[in-house]
Amino acid sequence: MKKLAVIVLILVLVAQCAMAQGNEQDLKKLNEKAQSLVREGNYGGAEEVQRQAVALAEKIYGPSAVQAAAQLQALSPILRQRSLFDEALRSLMKAMEIKEKALGRSHPEVAQNLMMQADLLRVTGKYREMEPLYQRALQIRKAALGGQHPDVASLHMNLADLYKLLARYEEAERQIREAIAIREKAFSGGAHPEVISAYGALADVVRIEGKYQEQERLLREILAKREKQYGPGHPDVASAASSLADYLRSRGDLKEAESLMRRALSIREQTAGKESPETASSCTALAGLMKSMGNYGAAYELLSRAKSIREKLSSPEGLDVAPVLMALTDLYRTQGKYAEATQAASGALAIQRHVLGSHPDVAGTLMILSDLSKSQGNFADAGSYLKEALAIREKVLGRDNLETAAAFQAMAQLMRQEGKFTESADFFTEVVAIRKKVLGAHPETASALNGMAEVYRSAGKYREATEKMKECLTIREKVFGEVHPEVASNLLAIADLMKGQGMFQGCPELITRAVAIREKIYGRSHPETLRARESLMDYYRKVGNFREADVLDDLIRRDRKREP
Fold first, then answer.
1. How far is CA 11 from CA 14, 16, 18, 61, in A?
2. What percent of the chain has pLDDT over 90?
């Protein structure tokens, strides 16, 4: 009897094990299905399936198991895509609570969750709430991995990105230099992709600060490091050459920019092949430079080649052809060839409709077609395209979604151009309502309020315009703090509204504050600071104080000579 009981127990355990394995396979299938739906853009379906995965994980392992936490954590990005940010954050916080109890507060998986929370807060504009999360994650990783681990460097880079967002550029620079030091030591030299990536981030920060010579030095150093590590004909050298070319293009050195872009194209032809996706991408990038140089014929030839490559690699109806058609759209639009631009964009739309159906990308192309119609004065077609884009986004993404809000904003701008200011303000009211609901006090909400202010200004409703601009300023100060470029721009906009109404009292204080902000962020001789001073000079001239205006004019001229 004892032997029989043992056999029965073993059979029960085997059956339970088999059931558990079967459940685990079901869980894996649910995860795979959710990811497939995400790739299709069906976020509502993906959410439903992932919730089933959460429930199954809780059933198999228990609601306090780390496996259940993993499924909750996987649910968060899907909720984020649906603009359900509060729910996404709650999902992450519940997962973190489970992990802290099961693994301890200083476990690396807790750090990963903290980083995901911070990234979600970025989307909702709660930038200053991100810093303590990143700092805690940094301390966890330092304790677990040591201060010189590449994962620690990654968190320094995350902090740098946050500080850059908050216009705390010196702190951003320090964080990047910390990351560079760690990565150079960890990867035995300066040519590792992670090191070069940090150099690129540093180049971007010094660009914002107006340190253009240092930016160029860093970009050239990146190119030299890649050449030394890989040789002159490596794909990564092509990428570095393209980055330097983009900088030189922005500074007006088009001749060297062209040389570098052609070098990048040549490398990609040799390494990936003359009819490769990489070569097609290089052709498209070089076409953009040719367009900016006014060499439209060369730009067209390059884009035609890129289109031919994409069509051979897939088919004329292949989805990869659509971006090239959109680049052709931009080229034709630049030349004022709106009919040809519309034809190219319509070709891209046909491909997207065929492959994707009712998809957010289709809505994006419809909005471009709307813009083209506006450029030709065809407001009826522009409105039709926008209505369809709005309908797709409402159907696929929901009304309370940021992409839907962008379509409402495009409608608002169209109404404004038609002089339908009441309708425009109504659409902007929708945009503000969605963004307040989804994002709260966020830069995008402020941007919508700014748009409403411009509509009221156009309608001659200066009091309402000023009120909206002040509401916009309140949000920007809350999000960014009182010393930020967006705050300075807002102060100048309010002052400009007041000057336009002949309401000069309070104007100099607003402009002087904007000047002080820009001086602190950029320095005295930066173009943005000089423009703020020019606004103050304009105020003095409007009130008849020509002596102060002339003094400022002299200061501006002297500082402009010291521009970097």
1. 5, 9, 10, 21
2. 57
What is the crossing angle of helices 338-356 and 360-375, to 10°?
170
- CB of 121 closer than 8 Å to CB of 129: yes
- Helix and strand numbers (H, E) in the chain are 26, 0
With beta carbons less than 8 A apart as the criterion, state whether 101 and 131 touch.
Answer: no
**What is the DSSP secondary-structure string of 370-407?**
HHHHHHTT-HHHHHHHHHHHHHHHHHHH-SSSHHHHHH
pTM: 0.56
**Confidence label for 17 from pLDDT (cuts 50, 70 and 90):** very low
Taking residue 252's Cβ as centre, other Cβ atoms within 10 Å add up to 8
CA-closest candidate to residue 114, choices 97, 90, 136: 136
How far apart, in whole angstroms, are the C-alpha atoms of residue 278 and residue 139? 40
Phi, psi of 186 (to 5 degrees): -70, -35
Give Cα 190 distance to the centre of its chain. 28
Least confidently predicted of 7-21, 29-43, 201-215? 7-21
Query: CA 224, CA 218: separation in Å to the nearest integer?
Result: 10
CA separation for the pair 138, 136 (Å, rounded):
5
Sign of CA dihedral 115, 117, 120, 125: negative
Question: What's the Rg (C-alpha) of the chain?
Answer: 28
Q: Is the pLDDT of residue 6 over 50?
A: no
Yes or no: say if 145 and 151 are a contact pair by the CB < 8 Å rule.
yes
The string of pLDDT tens digits covering residues 37-57 is: 888 888 889 899 999 999 999
Q: If residue 141 lies in a helix (H) or strand (E), which one and from where to where?
A: helix 127-145
pLDDT at residue 190 is higher than 70: no
Confidence at 9, pLDDT banded by 50, 70, 90: very low
Residues 91, 138: Cα–Cα separation, whole Å: 22
Question: What's the mean per-residue pLDDT of the chain?
Answer: 88
Cβ-proximal residues to 56 (8 Å cutoff; 6+ apart), any chain: 23, 26, 27, 30
**Burial zone of 2 (CB within 10 Å; 0-12 exposed, 13-18 middle, 19+ buried):** exposed
Both tokens of 65, joined, read: 């198991």
Residue type, 198: A
Query: What spatial distance separates the first Cα and last Cα of the chain, rounded to whole Å?
Result: 93
Q: Give mean pLDDT, residues 415-435.
A: 93
Long-range contacts, 454-461 (Cβ 8 Å, 24+): 454/416, 455/412, 455/416, 455/421, 455/424, 455/425, 455/428, 456/421, 456/425, 457/497, 457/500, 458/416, 458/421, 459/421, 459/422, 459/425
> What's the pLDDT band for 22 if we cut at 50, 70, 90?
low
Within 148-276, residue ranges assigned H as helices are 150-165, 169-186, 193-208, 212-230, 235-250, 254-272
SS3 assignment, position 552 = helix
Contact 289, 257 (CB under 8 A): yes
Positive or negative, the Cα torsion across 136, 137, 143, 147?
A: negative
Nearest to 219 by CA among 234, 239, 192: 239
CB atoms under 10 Å from CB of 19, counted, come to 11
